[in-house]
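Milestone M4 deliverable, item 7.
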Amino acid sequence: MKNTVSVKKIKSDAEELFRKGDFYCSEAIVSSIKSNFEIDMPDEMIAMASGFPIGIGKSKCVCGAVSGGVLSIGYFFGRTKGGDPKVQNTLKLANELQESFRSNHGCLCCHVHTKGFDMASGEHKKQCISFTGEVAEKAAEIIVRELKLTNIDG
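Output delivered:
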């Protein structure tokens, strides 16, 4: 894993992956985090993010970008053994991420954010690219801060 990353690059890479149509929001975030931190994460972790876009399986519930950010935080800080108390810190960090999004946009609900939009085009796509970049950036900032890594952006 790299000790030095560009949070801005993580954001722009996630946005570009979504913009080009390579991945949806949650997948783009996990992929960008994986490649920029150069972590030994199996590609199946990106696949695990494939069910979250468009508010979890197109249900338009929780924003898929937020889900991708939470997945990325969980990779670094989550538990793998039952009863491990470090889950409490992971929950705190996931809450920080979702509260940041909620503070910026009022709610986590994809349905609210996409009401009246033609899905997958125009305003909807532009907004989702923006949300993807925002969440990738915030998740990366949390990871960098918590692991005491260096953000080369300053």
